[in-house]
Prior knowledge:
- The chain is an alpha/beta fold.
- The protein has five helices and five strands.
- It has helices at about 15-25, 40-50, 65-75, 90-95, 110-120, and strands spanning about 5-10, 30-35, 55, 80-85, 100-105.
- Strands 2-1-3-4-5 form a five-stranded parallel β-sheet, with helices on both faces.
- The relative contact order is 0.19.
Amino acid sequence: MSTPVNVLIVVDSATIRAIIRRAVSLSGVAGLVHEAANGREALAVLEAAPIDAVFTDLNLPVMTGPELLRAMAGRDWDHIRRVIVSTDGSEVRRGEVRELNVRMYVETPFAPEMIRKALRGDRGADATQ
């Protein structure tokens, strides 16, 4: 049996958060699942709860995904898997997060298998669905 993975989903759309939450629950490895609508809320969750994986959109209000990832880099959170889930798969956007310890870049719409791969520790420098 796999060790449960505590997840933080950072997406401003409640509908997309629900879709990701469903894919996380289907993974078979999910522990607690937390949600945030922007990077600032995400940082508060990260401070308060043990998190193993963050799934974040790039385009967020208040604090964007890349800003969140930069803020995480200055903390003791190197163990946290960082996964981008975004409709924007352009090379410009990928380049923006390439140096921010991102494990996977998942384009929406995505197959639930991509979320499972990210949670189970499969690594792809630029894995995309």
